[in-house]
Batch of 4 targets.
Target 1
Amino acid sequence: MFEETIIAISTPLGYGGLGIVRLSGKKSLSIAKKIFKPKKQKAKIKPLRPILGNLYDFEQKEFFEEAYLTYFPQPSTYTREDMVEISCHGSPIILEEIIRIGIKAGARHANPGEFTLRAYIRGRIDILQAEAINDIIQASSLKQAKISFKQLEGSLSRKIASLRKNIIHLLSQIEASIEFPEERLRISPKQILKTIENTIQGIKKLIESYILGKTLSKGLTLAITGRTNVGKSTLFNSLLERERAIVTPYPGTTRDYLQERTKIKDSIFSLIDMAGITTPSHPVEKEGIKRGKKLLSDADGVLLLFDTSQNETLEDFKLLKQCKNKKPLLLFNKIDLPLRMNKEKVKDQGKNLPSLEISALKGTNLEKLKAKIHKIFVPNQNQGEEVILHLRQKLLLEEILDCLRGGGRLLKEGYTEEIIAEEIRKIIPLISQLTGEIKADEIINDIFNRFCVGK
């Protein structure tokens, strides 16, 4: 598969001023010469120097486009193979024709992410850097793009390499004290435990950073909940800055849920406008409330609305109790209307919970609300700290953490050094999975299938 020369469009689909077709493989230049002819007949294609010419259909024996060709010889290329890039006008018809005649000339159409996969297979990058490349392409904020760029440069890979080095050093010390006790190489249980605990702290920070990574890449889910007619849909529309939900003065307008993504500062949030929590009067409303409760339990955070123009009710207090463990932000809505609610009584029930007075309809304190949402739900990133963006990475780090904790527990319980070493030794293949040194086909396919074809 990797001996074949591949071809694909590397610029986004659609019309544009410029389009690029990329070839990679040992036949890249010979295939390119069949479909590209320099303007000057005796001109030679030199490495790293763009040359002007015409694209040639060797079947019809006619030229059909002007283009620049650049040849990149291996190994100093993206894939560590010979590569060719053809730059022409960004017409989908033209680009597709280059692909067609390129395949006729001996290339194969690239699979999703195959250029980056070849870079990984040939050792130019590890799997963490490969994931970072796709993260840059699909970045939803500049902050995420900067984090991904650092990881492409190897920041996360170096951190994991340092972890591996520390684990191997610890194992070598334990095993040396087992094999050569007479050589005074014995490491004390206190030293082992200190190393384990220090390593645990570093891994915990990485795992905890996933919350920030998720807000930057995929987004955190915020459920907007409250009794019927407290202004949930109005707030939903106000945060989205468009009329997405139908708003009426009649209770129970929203019977199902609506979900939309929005950006607040540099983070993504998935907002859910749910049916009002009340005694249902219709089977559809009952189903909407049922779904809403499920969404509420799965949400990363909650915006809990109260209507200050109405007296507080048992339903308000019941909802407050249900949401206490979901990082709720209490929002006292409709402050543009005469006050009837005893806000202090509600706040007493939600002691130490953050709150804000707003008018979703008039937009009062909406910017303060956005700032508060970001402050409450988005973790801070300390200067220079690494952030992981992928659940795959988080799960493997959690397995490594479990092994370290297991080793520390065995040590405290008085087990032999051989047993402790065996527990810690489980970490090495987990690190290899993390960096891609262990090439599990299912994981590799899942990662690279998320790439666009031309990358």
Target 2
Amino acid sequence: MNLGFNNQGSYETEFEEEVITIGEKERVIILHNDDYNTFDHVIDSLIEICGHHPEQAEQCAHITHFNGKCDVKKGPEVILEKMYRKLKLRGLSVTLED
């Protein structure tokens, strides 16, 4: 969602919509620990791509560091597939699982 003022001084909103089919398969993005991504890079990626709040992204980064992996997002396959690809492009070690 994007909020901003228009030329008339009132708020305008923009929404990105995804059409979800009832009964669509749920998937999970799992972040795996690695030795090359910094905490800041992982946190920024989770905020920007997965829509995490900063505290949530930081917790996921720490859980991944100490446990080796962490579920970072659950939802419909059509939405998670896009997030998964974007995280991979940023060099994060992620898997998309059932």
Target 3
Amino acid sequence: MSNSLKNLYNQDYISLLSSTLNQVEKSFIPEAFIRLVFDDLWSQRELKQRMHHIAYCLHESLNFSYSHVIFILEKVFFKMNSAYALENMIFQDYVQIYGLDSFAISMSALEKFTQGSSSEFAIRAFLISYEEQTLEIMRAWTQSPNEDVRRLASEGCRPRLPWAVALKRFKSDPTKVLEILELLKNDNSAYVKKSVANSLNDISKDHPQRVKELARRWLKEDEKKYSLLKHGCRTLLKAGDKETLGLFGFKSIQELHLKNFYYTSVVKKGEELFFNFELFSTKKCLGKLRIEFAIEFVRLRSRFSKKVFKIAEGDFLSSTKKVCKVYSFKKISTRQYYKGKHKLFIIVNGETLHEVGFELN
């Protein structure tokens, strides 16, 4: 998680949390809790460290049995403004840290806390410690009337969930995850569908053939799953996997050509790479195309990394299409740029139509 998010845990939120706790449990002393939270190390802690620290402060400030603390926290959680969805994940964090020995109470709490927030990180500790018991409950959650709970069934067992502990057993063998996705494949919620797609995309990185076989079967069952499956196969599509591209109707481009290519051959850091070109077909129409570009970035120690970006996608009825595109080399926190000779690739339906080098100064 981005370090800038750590400031979501600020004086305003902790004050709101403290006052709400005091409304529910009169013996709770807000001032003492606030002093405990904002200790000498507070400014040095990042987002997850702050989350864990607040959970610890709750544990120190609520001198009751685990079951009674959960009773208090559930009441507090539903009083807190749902606008604090991310901040309120301290409740799930408390369950993860202090509730592993109270499985039934903790599962019930995570089911409640995921509503208007998310228990996707906390539940992974239970999947690791109580795999079968947790999966049994998650399978039941796929039938919940609440879309947040159904989503948790999928999102919680994603093998490669970002910012979370990887589920090594499911990375090695995703069978049990796929069983849950089968139960959710016809879900009407866009929120749940996106989670199913993200889980499939995770699995495709370790088991591409299994995901391709599933995609073929699901599409045969119901063509309406096209969008869900295309999102779930996005890594395979970006990699130019021919079998996957064919599943979604992106065929060979033997009749397709590129002309009038122009680009800026020298780019300064902070400025933009500009390029344009025209696609034309010897047939009456271009047909169904997935148009992308890729940049092979210079990295440290003479290394390179390639990243693919989508330009356009559709069924083009004309025989030509003009494309203009800009890529910015302005400084961003998620990517470091290094000077040297980079490469630009124009890709259509997974095939490279053109490749040039350009200098970044």
Target 4
Amino acid sequence: MRICKRCLYHENHPLHIIINNDGICSGCKVHEEKDEIHWTNKLEELKQLLLGYRNTTGSNYDCIIPVSGAKDSYFIVHTVKNVLGMNPLLVTYNKQYNTAIGIRNLANLRIQFDCDIMTMTVDPNKVKKITRSTFRRFGSVYWHVLAGQSVFPVQIAVKFKIPLIIWGAHQGIDQVGMYSHHDKVEMTRKYRKEHDLMGFEADDLLDDEYDFIREDDIFQYRYPDENEIEQIGVRGIYLNNYIRWDSRTQHEAMIKQYGFETALQNRTFDTYNDTDCWLYNDVHDYLKWLKHGYGKVLDHAVREIRLKQLTKKEGISLVKHYMHKPMQHLDEFLQWLGITENAFHLIADQHRNPAFWKRNESWEWEYQPLLFDAQEELIQTKNFTPFTITPKGVSSDAENQYILFGKGR
């Protein structure tokens, strides 16, 4: 299995990375555009595009921004509202694996930017039913989050006739170079299904003969009809086509300017992304490791290597340190979902990728590690510095307990 000579991705990446004859992956090649593009010109293109979406009568919002209590939400809202002067409606899907830090960050986001926000919270019993089905069928305990986050903004766009949705970074560009920045790729139903949702739309869950999923369990996750989308003219653009994307630098600016909170995570060194979810860089990431042979820490290391903030050797060391970390929140997840630990491992084992996992003579699972290429390209880099840990804020919610709704600050 070939591994990129510059970063750490292998050719069996689930987003179908391509490694050329020089041993460099498509993600690294497209990343080179970040240092070649005249971003000032790109920003002007974006400003011209937005002129057609400003609501000059004050009767509606200019655009929709999907947000959460982590990731790049602060930077996106800051850019769209304060830099570009748009009046956005914020929308958020309640993932139900909420951390107190995530709730505080989301509350602070509303306060700092003085924006209206709409939240979708699906009945937890329906979410659990869907999660039992997606876990058993394709090894995902996060499908409902990906489905909800990617469809709720579109549903609101259609319902309130707001044609423009502004997202942050397109994963296919930033990770694997599926597209060039010059393609100006936009949100599509096809990409959502094939990559975000692992090939399964909400209606594909209706034939589940074990959990008896019904129409009223999944309509919240159903993508609007094409005729509705065309009638309103809904489109979703990505900021990383117009702004040089650097998640770490962006987060650190938001920490200083708006008090964004960070936290240590179990299976990665990144203290900025997905800290609003106790499942993402824990149980969900463990399952990713079983299915794809690597965890989120490798994604984060690749990102920092490409941005020349981390050497390949340092990245390998971080990956080896974090990827084997045991789950910390398995008990909480089992209690929430209502299954036993034996049942969890029985199902999880069925989704192990045989390219990375083998049974030994004692019939125990052994990981067949990625053989990272010893040959390293000479990349000038700063000495790696740990990600920032901010002081912990005060929360009105009980710590270390399941939180469906939180008060924030």
